[in-house]
Specification:
single chain; alpha/beta; six-stranded mixed beta sheet; 10 helices; 14 strands
């Protein structure tokens, strides 16, 4: 884990990008409006906020600026949002990125919060390319999907490219709680971004990386720069890595499996934070070590096993291997029940019954299982 110290929270430069397509009409939009107004009221004098709405075109509702005066006029603008049109996320994301760019500053936490309830069509690759560019400029993305129809795989990759994360909002009534929690977590940031630059090593393959805290989620491993996400005040960023080590990596009685440099962007410091060289090695022996792994590692691996079981099950079902996928889900439900997670186990059992009848994973069931197993990383051990 990478521990945080107590330091002043950086001023924010945040854009809220709101889907206002036709499907957002009703309770969803009402709660989004109330949540955006609450965020506006909670701003500190040093914070910069912008609000963008999009459907098949985007509009800057509130330009990026300090908003310590005349907030009632801005609240009225938010109240005037009217749903209508289709869903083109790139329109909103690009416009939000431009607003953040107007006040882009390494001394600020620069971030986009994307709220959507639908799938975007035809512009996914544009969105992902833009996310990669934003990540290089130290702009994070938090993607929040409302209801059942949005594409969680796409939003996950979109956020991950910046070191951010995606979230599942099952019911409209939960929007305010989760959006305000996300905004509060931005205020609690100590290091805006932590990256690990790794050197390729012969015979060593980093096959999987997962952030356990603060926001559980996958980390892209197909590049030499791993975006580990932020560090919050009084907490830590925890990441688990899975390596495949071939015999060619073992050249002595010590095997090196990570050689890299850890960098943290901490805007509250007067000078850039120094880089930390990292080299992880393990002794090589024919004898099995008698020592047990630390309980913290055992618990993390146990919960990661559950998460990866749902990943494998989903993959099998998407490939048409219904029987193999349902077996994986049944094993997952049994594991969860044995660990006291009965509610999630029941959700999976109901979804298995539905899959066997309809030969596919439902949009809602898939999200409940994925984000339910992901939330286990934040739960205390039972």
């Amino acid at each position: 884990p990478v521990e945080a110290r107590r330091a002043p929270s950086p001023p924010l430069n945040v854009c809220i990008v709101i889907d206002r397509s036709t499907s957002m009409a009703g309770e969803k939009m009402d709660v989004v409006k109330a949540s955006a107004i609450q965020i506006l009221r909670n701003l500190r004098p040093q914070d910069i906020l912008s609000v963008v709405t999009f459907s098949d075109r985007a509009e800057v509702l509130i330009p990026a600026a300090y908003h310590d005066e005349d907030r009632s006029r801005l609240e009225a603008r938010i109240q005037m949002i009217q749903p209508g049109g289709g869903t083109e996320i790139f329109q909103g994301l690009e416009t939000g990125a431009k607003e953040v760019a107007r006040s882009l500053d390494s001394r600020r936490l620069n971030h986009i919060i994307l709220l959507t309830d639908g799938q975007t069509y035809g512009d996914e690759q544009q969105c992902l390319e833009l996310a990669s560019k934003l990540g290089e400029r130290h702009v994070g993305i938090s993607a929040m999907g409302i209801g059942r129809e949005w594409n969680d795989v796409f939003l996950d990759v979109l956020a991950t490219r910046t070191g951010g994360s995606s979230a599942y909002i099952a019911e409209p009534k939960d929007i305010k709680k989760l959006l305000l929690e996300k905004f509060d977590s931005l205020v609690q940031v100590y290091a805006e971004e932590v990256t690990l630059n790794i050197q390729p090593l012969e015979g060593v393959q980093l096959s999987y990386a997962f952030r356990l805290r603060p926001d559980p989620g996958l980390i892209m491993v197909d590049e030499t720069t791993l975006r580990l996400g932020p560090i919050l005040q009084d907490t830590s960023t925890r990441v688990i890595f899975e390596y495949i080590i071939h015999s060619t990596a073992v050249k002595s009685d010590i095997a090196t499996f990570l050689d890299g440099v850890l960098n943290a962007l901490i805007s509250s410091l007067p000078l850039p934070a120094p880089a930390h060289p990292m080299r992880l090695q393990r002794p090589v022996s024919d004898a099995v070590a008698a020592d047990s792994p630390p309980p913290e590692i055992v618990q993390a691996l146990s919960r990661l096993m559950l998460y990866r079981m749902q990943e494998r099950a989903r993959g099998e079902i998407e490939r048409g291997n219904i029987e193999a996928g349902t077996r994986q889900l049944q094993a997952l439900a049994a594991n969860l029940a044995s660990q006291g997670e009965r509610s999630l186990a029941r959700t999976i059992a109901l979804e298995v019954d539905r899959i066997q009848q309809e030969k596919g994973l439902s949009a809602e069931g898939g999200k409940k299982i994925k984000y339910g197993t992901r939330a286990l990383f934040l739960a205390p051990p039972k």
